[in-house]
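Reopening this one. Same input as before:
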Amino acid sequence: MTVFSPINKSSDVTILTILKRSQIIEAWHQQFQIDITEEIGEQEEIYLYRCNQTNLMFFVPFDIAGSDKLYEQLEKYDWYYMPEKWEHNVALQDLENCQKVVEVGCGRGAFVERLCTKLKLDAQGIELNSNAVKYAQKKGIPVLKLDVHDFSIDMANYFDAVCSFQVLEHISDPYIFLESLIKLVKPGGNLIISVPNAESFLKRIENHLLDQPPHHMTRWSQKSFDSLTSIFPLRVKKFRIEPLATYHVDSYLSDQLFPMPKLILLEKITRRVSHHILKPILKNSSFLRNLIPGHTLYVCFEKLG
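Same output, byte for byte:
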């Protein structure tokens, strides 16, 4: 079977990893107490490929992206919908001269609320998670349950800026999704996207369940975003990498210190050094954290034409 990249339809791809369906189902049950049997299809093996032309990594089969039901179960965890993110603050700079803004995949609408109340923008959000939409609407935040493809037909070339934070990686067909986002933006307007950084320290975490199907379907890098300018009418205006966040310090230190051979005495020593010396230093030094690439990539495109 020939596999094609979902972003440029190229067959110049390399297989990176093979995952077992049964192992993923069991891991989700143990870690999150969520049954994903119906989410992940019938194929016993799931493949991770890299497009050699764009550096985009993607999972096959394509039809195993999580449903609304999966996200409704994940939202019971407080960390899942963070009301304020690093990329929100970066985006505010790129929205200074905008008036009409939409956030696609806005969750509970925290950023939309911020745009409406603090910046007085004509902002709205669309979201597919029914519970998140109800939560936002109860707070009076202008969020509607709409599909972006249908929305883009009715609102083509309407918005000064379109934002989508931590959504693209969940989409099984990123080409259609990006095409819809771009359609919403006025020529000369901004398309703002953030995704997990495929080249951060998190990439070395084995069996990172939230970075594979049915949760994530693609993995992005700066090269992947740069390649979009040859596929769509876009120009990169700004590209940023989030510095290591304080709440990721523990994960970062574990990743850096504990892949070494499991010698019990050595592990005890490194854990003590990590906890008592390195952890406080990193958490209290924004200068040092700024030197370490963190979780999120941020890109602001200008729509051409």
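So the earlier flakiness isn't reproducible anymore. For the record, The chain has a mean pLDDT of 89.
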